[in-house]
């Protein structure tokens, strides 16, 4: 009887873990994920022309995965870091144009001065 009772308790605990929302939501997306996903955009940012198909797909995938405020904040912060490194030349202008070139509605600008906390609750 004891093993059966333990199995029932374990099943109830597992069910509660699945049904109950987490106490805090942590970002599942890291800057390394953002950077590697957007690597196909590098050629466009450096040389101009048209973004590669993989670039636009990468942006769309990141937006689809950013389903909570911590993920949106992380992506914004990663893009802000890139913008800080690219400021002062044609690179930042090209990077900032990526969402429109890819027909993607990014709720914030790719800019070194963007306030990522202003956009965290925005639905993508």
From TrEMBL:
Q: Which domain of life is it from?
A: Eukaryota
Q: Where are the transmembrane segments?
A: none
Any one GO MF annotation of this record: lipid binding
Q: Enumerate the UniProt keywords alphabetically.
A: Lipid-binding, Signal, Transport
Q: Is rRNA-binding one of the keywords UniProt gives this record?
A: no
List, alphabetically, the CDD domains matched.
nsLTP1
Alphabetized Pfam families for the sequence: Tryp_alpha_amyl
Q: Which family does it belong to?
A: Belongs to the plant LTP family.
| Purpose of the protein | Plant non-specific lipid-transfer proteins transfer phospholipids as well as galactolipids across membranes. May play a role in wax or cutin deposition in the cell walls of expanding epidermal cells and certain secretory tissues.
**Protein name stated in the entry:** Non-specific lipid-transfer protein
